[in-house]
What does this fold into?
Amino acid sequence: MVSRAAKAGSKAGAGVKGARRPEVRLPSLESYGGGELEPDGDYDGLLFGELDFVGQDGGGARFMDCALTGCAVDETRLHHARVLDSVLTGLRGVGTDFGSATFRDVEVVDARLGGVQMHGAVLERVVFRGGKIDYLNLREARIRDVVFEGCVLVEPDFGGARLERVEFVDCVLKGADFSGVSLTDVDLRRAAEVGFARGVDRLAGAVISPAQLLDLAGVFAAEVGVRVVGVEV
It folds into this structure.
C-alpha cells in the first residue's frame, strides 16, 4: 500500500514534498450547553452550533475533538488557544484573535473572516477549504503541512513566518506579504491566482509554474532593479 504522505508527495511533484493532510474523525458529539467561553477552558467532544461568541474571552482554552459550526467570532479572544482534531465550519467574524494559538489536525471550512490575528501561531496538518479571509496576520507563525484549498486570501501577511510543506490549491492569493519568510517545499503551482505585495525576494524554497513565472516576471524584474522597456522602431 502507498501511504497518504507518499500520495501527497507524488501529487505535489518530483522533488517537492507534499503536505500531510489532517485525518479528522470526530466522535459522537454532545451539544455545548451554552454560556460564555472561559479563559483556559477545557472543551472536549462538543458541538458548538450557530453560537454567538462576539467579544468573549477564551484565551488559553483547549478544544479537542470539537465541531464549531456557523459561530460568530467577531473580536473573540482566543490567543494561546489549542484547537486539536477539530472541524471549524462557517466561522464568521472580524478581528478574531488567535495569536500564538496552536492548530493541529484541524479543518477550517468556508470561513468568512477579516483581520484575523494568528501571529506567532503554530499550524500543523491544517486544511483551509473554501471561504474568504481578508487581512490574515500570520507573522512569525510556524506553518507545517498546511493546505489552502479553494479559498480566497486577501492581503495575507506571512512576514517572518516559517512555511514547510505548504500547498496552495485552487486558491486565490492577493497582495501577499512574504517579507522575511523561510520556505521549504511550498507549492504554488496549482494556485488559481498569485500576487505579492512584498517579499518576492524570499521565494527560495517555493515552486511555481511556468505560467506563473511569466505572470510574475515584472515583479521579479522590479525586485532586482531591471527596467523592462519596449524598443522603438
Remarks:
- The helical segments are 4-12, 210-215, 217-223.
- The chain has three helices and 16 strands.
